[in-house]
Amino acid sequence: MHLTIPEHYDPKLTVRQTQEAIRFIRETFQDELGKELNLTRLSAPMFVERSTGINDNLNGVEEPVAFTMHDLPGQTLEIVHSLAKWKRVALKKYGFGVHEGLYTNMNAIRKDETLDNLHSSYVDQWDWEQVITQDERNEQTLKATVQKVFKVIKHMEHEVWYKYPQAVYRLPDKIHFITTQELEDSYPQLSPAERENAICQKLGAVFLMKIGGPLKSGQRHDGRAPDYDDWQLNGDILFWYEPLQCALEVSSMGIRVDAVALKSQLEAAHANERLKFPYHQMIMKKELPYTIGGGIGQSRVCMLLLGKAHIGEVQASAWPQTMIDECLAHQIQIL
Fold this sequence. Notes:
Layout: H1 15-37, E1 39-41, E2 47-49, E3 66-67, E4 77-79, H2 86-93, E5 101-109, E6 122-131, H3 139-163, E7 176-179, H4 180-186, H5 192-203, E8 205-209, E9 229-241, E10 246-256, H6 259-268, H7 278-284, E11 291-297, H8 298-306, H9 321-329
Parallel strand pairs: 1-5, 7-8
Antiparallel strand pairs: 2-4, 3-4, 5-6, 6-11, 8-9, 9-10, 10-11
Helix pairs in contact: 1-3, 1-8
């Protein structure tokens, strides 16, 4: 457990006002995202069968919450970590065309998360996915889509300012693009997290590209599952967050693997055994559409726009009592 307490913190809104603002942000944001990216809202599962290989295994070390059901003998079900793979299958199943897509409310449990101001065991995000052509699997498509997501976030800043002018946290007007290798070259003496803090403090908002593969130093900037994002065509949207003096990630997104990228990345991750799963076989046989997609943290967006000091102020989860008590002593009201 790690907790940062901002000096002279003022939540600006009461708990009830905060709850009203959360509802407003969530409902408005998803509508605006759908319009900007041509997305249709779909219902999505909270758990999937382990045997499908469709769950997101994150960095490969996190263990999903799993259980069995009486009427599904021999099957183990897993609470999703995210819907990164499920969405691509859904686009095929429901017949989405090129430049059409879906979004859904994703709720997950990540029991191995280290709790702090930004991280909770309960994860809520807008998971979205859009069909693209094979020719659009390039950096230009990725950057153009990032700009659209950033546009929606900036639009929400204005909407929140209109309703809660005393509470809105002002965002930079531009997002910058930089690769993990460029970042390592600029700050070779810093750790990956320290590099993110340094570049975000300098530029305000950054899309950090090419996450997952090893850098020239031999180290990886961060772990990334080998079987959904193409490590050469992905990244994170990061903001410098003044209240906590750190980089705040609000979205992870990317162009998804094709057969070549999947094979290469599974080999690099020593995970070739995953090729036995139905999902991976569909990619190798080119049965799934080419797509771009990502997740946008609902609580993270609410936290960012309202200038909150702790993610527990905008979502109901479980926290150590010592953290709850210390937060309350500094006007940080955990839900």
